[in-house]
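Researcher: Structure prediction, please.
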Amino acid sequence: MKPSMSLTGEHEDHKIAAVFEAETDARGVAKALWENTSLTDKQVMVLSPNDRHHGEELEPEDQGIWRTLVRSHIGLGIAGAVAGFFLFLVLNASGIGLIAQNTVVAASVFTAFGAVFGL
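Model: Predicted structure follows.
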């Protein structure tokens, strides 16, 4: 999925790490992953203690963190508000007295709680 289309904005949403006693063991497992799965060599990285920038290699999409924060909160907040308002419409249409008598307040409360649950 393209980062512009995903909710998080990251290229890879899932990251897994493993620790090995020897670098040769790690390289063997990486090779087995390349050969036996659909993962590419860009998706499987072996880090050694001599590598200088472990943080950049473990978390290569640090700019994606802010995009994830903004995009997911805005998107999920709006989706939750819409779902809350839809729930209000269903309950209002069913004729529940408390909601039918206080439509503006009920619509506001359901929409606000929906947005909070979405966040």
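Model: Residues 61-119 form one domain.
Researcher: Thanks, that helps.
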